Amino acid sequence: MSISNPSRKMKFKVLIDESLCKGCALCVYICNKLGGKVLKESNKRTLLGGTLPILNGECLGCRMCERYCPEFSITVEE
Ligand code: SF4
Ligand code: SF4
User: Fold this and answer.
1) Which atom of ligand 1 is found nearest the CA of 46?
2) Is 4 a member of any domain?
3) Structural domain tally of the chain?
4) Core-most of 29, 31, 32, 37, by most CB within 10 Å?
5) In angstroms, what is the span from residue 34 Cα to ligand 1's centroid?
6) Residue 71: which CATH number?
7) Which tens digit of pLDDT belongs to each residue from 10-49?
């Protein structure tokens, strides 16, 4: 059994592999719908002409973006 300690504030890093990301913005949609509302579309384009996501705020670590990314190009680390 794992017990979470609410007093321990964890920091998460969101890593995006730009060579794999197609810029579909699904992670942005999911983060804003179900996550911490911190992923946004940037001005930077992917190789396929989509928009690269960027983090704008503190990630909650819910990993919804990681789970839904069709290209496995986004990873969340503690
Ligand atoms: S869901 Fe994946 S492929 Fe789509 S924009 Fe996000 S990181 Fe890129
Ligand atoms: S882990 Fe959750 S809060 Fe963090 S960027 Fe992904 S969807 Fe957003």
Assistant:
1) 8
2) no
3) 1
4) 31
5) 16
6) 3.30.70.20
7) 899 999 999 999 999 999 999 999 999 999 999 999 999 9
Residue 48's domain comprises: 13-77
pTM: 0.89
What one-character-per-residue DSSP string does the chain give?
-----TT-----EEEE-TTT-----HHHHHHHHHS-S-EEEEEEEPTTS-EEEEE-S------HHHHH-TT--EEEE-
Ligand 2 binding residues, C-beta < 6 A: 14, 30-31, 35-36, 38-39, 59-65, 76
**Residue 48 included in any domain:** yes
State in Å: Cα 21 to ligand 1 middle. 5
The answer as to whether 61 is a domain residue is yes
